[in-house]
Amino acid sequence: MSTKFKLGFIVNPIAGIGGSVALKGSDGEGVAEEALALGAEAKSNQRATTALSVLLPYKDLIDVYTVSGDMGQECAASLGFSVRSCLTVKAPTTAADTEQAVDMLLSEGVDIILFAGGDGTARNICSRVGDACPVLGIPAGCKIHSGVYAVTPKAAGRVIEMMVTNQLVTLTEADVMDIDESLFRQGVVKAKRYGEMQIPSELRYVQSVKAGGKESDELVLQDIAAHVIDELGDSLAVIGSGSTTAFLMEEMGLDNTLLGVDLVQDQSLIASDVTEPVLWQHIEQAIDSGVDVKLVITLIGGQGHIFGRGNQQLSPRIIRAIGRDNIIIIATKTKLSNLEARPLIADTGDESLDQELSGYMPIVTGYKDQVLYPVASPE
User: Looking at the whole model, is its pTM more than 0.70?
Assistant: First the structure.
């Protein structure tokens, strides 16, 4: 009888919970409680379920070693996997629980640790695992700067599928990065390398470390901004996060929330760093008044996500209300070239919406200059 694949599985149940309510993450004392009070919903188990669902055809070949409750056991058991709980924890869970879970999974000799979380979770795991076992992250946090994550939850499942079916998978070292969330909430990005972990490397499915730095070609950005300002007219404009959209705001002479979502109309700032519910109210009012609503977004350098990373305020209902034709994507041609022909990724958390957004979309790359570029749903 063949030996079953031993899958270590950890879920940080509060990862990314602050995203939709503009708190920029879940790290820090009282942040998760504040997020819940503002109406946020924990979605890391949902993303973990998406990853594990890819493995359902092979569940008889897999034993899942995990943690009690919403740190993994409930998710895996609900899908019908053979589950062995190695650690019992009490809510609310902590970083120490994650670290203890790693110790327990290592003692069980798991083949890989699959975990759902953000960069803080990756740091916790890195502090315990060393090079004793390969790991792979399911992206579920607001901050995904580390190179240990798959590009989407489904992609994480695909990599594990390759291992379960004995396909050749290259192992490589990837950096664990994180930023100071207290500075992050003030619009300051200060990243630091905390170590590296061994990951199964499949370029289609595992992301690069997030590319940083400002665009250097200011003239190109000025041309992009001029085009967008002309196109917006008197519409209500939802301005997404990122350095490219920040330049647009600077060109309009407006204060910008680098890591949040702002509302602009007639080149005047209507609201800053809005939460999803507040954004929804403004959009409903605009539509009821007959005002056009447009969404201006850019892609995350080195990764290609247009939804699902750092802009969780742009929920499926927000995107649907605005409509695909009213989404303005801006990027320099250099930034697009750096994707090496990989499609942009729409990972909204709603599979049907991801499909609706798929296909070629125009990207504003200069003044009256656009290119068609493919957008794909998560694999």
Answer: no
